[in-house]
Here is the input.
Amino acid sequence: MVAEVGHFALILTLTLALAQSILPIAGAHLGDLKLMRFGSSAAVGQAVFLTVAFAALIACYVTSDFSVRNVVENSNSAMPLIYKVTATWGNHEGSMLLWVLIMAVFGAAVAVFGDNLPAPLKARALAVQGMLGVGFLVFVLFTSNPFIRLDPAVPDGQDLNPLLQDLGLAVHPPFLYLGYVGFSMAFSFSVAALIEGRVDASWARWVRPWVLAAWCFLTIGITLGSYWAYYELGWGGWWFWDPVENASFMPWLTGTALLHCALVVERRQTLVNWTILLGILTFSLSLVGTFLVRSGVLTSVHSFAVDPARGVFVLALLVLISGGALALYAYRAPTLKQGTPFAPVSRESSLVLNNVLLVSACATVFIGTFYPLVIEVMSNDKISVGPPFFNMTFVPMMIPLLLLMVVGPFLKWKRDTIREALAKLRRPAIVTGLGLSAILLATFGAHALAAFGFGIAIWVIAGSLAILARRMRIGQAPLATSLHLARITPRSVYGLVLAHAGIGVLVAGITAMSAWTEEELRKLPIGGALDVGGYRVTLKTVEGVTGPNYQAERAVFDISSDDQFVSTIFSERRYYPVRRTQTTEAGIHTNLISNVYLAIGEESGSKEWTVRAYYHPLAPWIWFGPMIMALGGFISLSDRRFRVGAPRRARAAPVLAPAE
Amino acid sequence: MALRRLLAPLIAAALILFAAPSLAVEPDEVLPDPAQEARARQLSQHLRCVVCQNQSIDDSNAELARDLRVLVRERIKAGDSDEAAMAYIAARYGNFVLLKPPMQFNTLLLWFGPGLVLLLAFAGYFMLIGKPGKQADLDGAETLTAVEREKLDAILTKGRTS
Here is the structure.
């Protein structure tokens, strides 16, 4: 019964989405306000019905309804309740339902919060959002329906993939989808603007918060995925240039570019065409990511051909959505008004350079990800494109970007000189020089590459903080004045400083991890010890433990430093009988500066266990950095109410009041 | 519950039976000479485990990855240079095992594509900032038309009164 309610709600949503994709756009064309307003009602209706559908699926999982095929394939009665809930989206069908739900929620948000939008723009954007909805709802209903019944029902389910039975990975997909789908707003508004034939500052002001929100979520989603890979896969890596990772990284790169060039549209009404194109491309890359992950094309081109329905469908959607939008772009973009010019040295120019580098980096990831597939299809030859390729191509493009991102915020809009900008950067430059020399001296010049990496990290962090220091006039004004200036500095500036500084933290983490990781591989008896990174690791016991749906061998380690006890941690090898799968749970001790990472392996005949121990300096910073970036994004978002974006609230709190 | 207690020993047995060697490099593979071992690790990171999804043999715990790791170490012990060892393995397992694809006719676009895109993007950038007459426009561009000026004034007064 519950499943049927969900199924029916899903069908209702499709009919609503169909109406939403036609009526409002017709209304905008005819100037009929009633038809235009229908878009808002339909968008809210979609969100309501899909919430019902999603809740119904969760209910099926929580009650272990093994007459629903999707539940049978991905759940088991012995599984802990929390994983029964997260299993709802831990599979293809459920995750696609989550995808359409998030898309509908974004649409409803436009309907509810978009009072200040011009009615025709709102109607057209919602209509485009409705069309996207139709595409994906048809996909869910006809190729990936989670509500299909199984007759007869079975006594128990086949369990969730044990790798997914983990909290980090359980919240990873929702964040990733909030990012992917959030970019659909940029897409819908871009297409709506193309249909209307005009783009102005208010358009950018309206789109930017959505792009920023999507970007923050995607950043968190990627970070969670990376952290999960670190502790779950058992060998301490954090980024593998795996196609699945690349799939989420590509929209992040263009999304970052979009974020920056929408700034130019908002402030200077220029780069309009390019911004629209990026809006379309970013969402298209989100779709490409979905295609890569959902079609099975990754494992092999041939496995794609075995069950082609889903892959072909997503591919068709991709061609229809991106192709349609790009065709419209080619037709309409030349008619859009071109904005004000700017000098080669100016804030605008630096933001264009940012886009040049980010988009080229994205193209590099794209080429590296798809090249093996193309080669396999065209010549039946098989090649691999792995980390060495990306280190040689992607990384060199990032270095100038990291150097430039400090200079950009110090440039004036429209026209500036390099000399003036650099003069403002004297202090960060001095700090960087000192840090670089200190590392070179301390390591006797043996780690030139690491020193270079840290130099960049210091440059980025110091350069970002310098934005704030300059605004607060630290060292030039009395402390009270500085504090007052700090208080009236808009939140978007704090957001910018945090987001940029976060990159510096990330670079420091990456550099330390690649230069100074230590590894020890040993066979240890009970009571045996090894030394890694200044810590002594002692194997205390190895015992069998029984989890709710697994059996495990648990190794308990004591960690000490200079004979001082530090911590007890454990590492497990788990065996999940239903899926006959084994996983490794690494034991990690962190002091936020470095990690000690332990993984237990096989027992060899003589009561000895293989132990892999790592010392990972600054490893936590690899995830702190991006989290700081996302935090910066959210802080910047909270500034939005002081913008034209929300006139109602603005009336309650006057724009000019320097409160808070 | 009773069934599960009964099953427990069976499961424990399965844990041992089905267990793949669970860590990547095993202690018994490690070469006695640290310099040679370091070279072996370096090469391992550039070789793909053929049965895994995008893992290097250094990271993989598959049986085939182990064979390949042992082979790398054999070649190094036999006195092969890094290049010779890689060529030896590529000749037997195909280019698929090389995580850094070789430069050859059908990978030209792969290796030069990114640079080409960057070049094009920069060309676009210079076209954008280097348009003739642009510099002259810079100062005139900000002037508002009479209608725009009026609109702006209206907006500004409105903001002040509310």
The two ends of chain A are 52 Å apart (CA to CA). The beta strands of chain A are 518-525, 529-532, 535-546, 551-561, 564-576, 581-585, 587-590, 594-604, 608-617. DSSP finds 21 helices and nine strands in chain A. The longest helix of chain A spans residues 347-379.
